[in-house]
Write a structure and sequence with these properties.
By secondary structure, the chain is α+β, with helices and mostly antiparallel strands. The protein has a single domain, classed as 2-Layer Sandwich (60s Ribosomal Protein L30, Chain: A), CATH 3.30.1330. It has two helices and six strands. A six-stranded mixed beta sheet has the order 1-2-3-6-4-5, covered by helices on one side. It is globular, with a radius of gyration of 15 Å. It starts with 9 loop residues before the first strand and ends with a strand.
Length: 136
Amino acid sequence: MADAPETVRIALSTPSAPRPIGPFSQGVRCPPGTLVFVSGQVGADPATGQLAGDVVAQARRALDNAGAVLAAAGLGFADVVKATIYVADLGDFGRVNEVYGGYFAAPAPARTTIQAAALPLGARVEIDLIAVARAM
C-alpha cells in the first residue's frame, strides 16, 4: 500500500479578513512553509462584508485584510516578495500607490498593477500577495 500523498497546500483562514465569496481559500501555505499565497483581497469589512468608501479607503482595507491573512500564517508585510494590484481605473493608480507604500519598508516587493474591467463586489481595488515563510 502506497503512502498517502503529502498535502501540497494548507489553507489559511482568519475571521479578520472577509470570507471567500467563491471556491478559494483566503490564503495558502505550501509545506514545508516556504511560500504563502494570499488570495486577492478587496476593501470589504470582514464583519459586515460591506466595501469601504472611496478607493483610498478600499486600498487600506484590502491591505489590512491581506495583512490579517499573513498574520494567520505568522507573517507580516516584511515577508512579502510579490504583490499584484488590480484597479478598476488606472486613474486611481497614484492614490492606491500612496496607500500601498505605507505598508512596505524598503526594499519593496516586486509588484504588478493591472486595470481590470470589473472586480468582485464592485470593488475599486483588489490586492494579492506572495510571501516567503520560515520552516513550519
